[in-house]
Amino acid sequence: MPDLESCEAWIKLFGSLSKSDPPQFFGRRLRLPCIMHQVTAVHPQVAGSPAPTFVYEIHADGLAPFKIELPHELKDIYSTPFPYALIRPWHSKLLGSSTDVDSKADEQLFMMLSQPFSALLLAETDRKEYKRIASSSAIVARPANVTSVIHSKVQVVTIV
After folding, report:
1. Which of 12, 71, 74, 97 is the most exposed place for a label (fewest CB within 10 A)?
2. What is the pTM (predicted TM-score) of this model?
3. How do beta strands 66-70 and 54-60 pair?
4. How far is CA 17 from CA 67, 108, 129, 146, 156, in A?
């Protein structure tokens, strides 16, 4: 049985997800609700293919470490804090018709958030906006553990 603190965190997450605005374009910017995972370490790896690619092992808050392959070299991988984040894009329609915490919706949401997901890699700009970093293949991330899912935080990022 989860403790009271975990239950409260889960109810807060569910509420944040259900009340989030849909993604919106304004001008040339996308305002995107998401669950953000700040990158905490980037380790360059030896590329295995003959094409010019860059392989990195990525560590991010709340995610299991994983490798990505990029067509371009990441900048500032030795700076602190890291200017990179991985996000799980969110749309409130993913909750289906339920916007109330009940056992069925609760279980479905928890199962969905516990699964591996397609992430976007973003680099923060000077104005607290983000630029998407293209990858050579899909970026598939997975939560590190149950606690990381329960304590996820919903944010809205602006992507230029």
Report:
1. 97
2. 0.86
3. antiparallel
4. 28, 13, 21, 17, 11
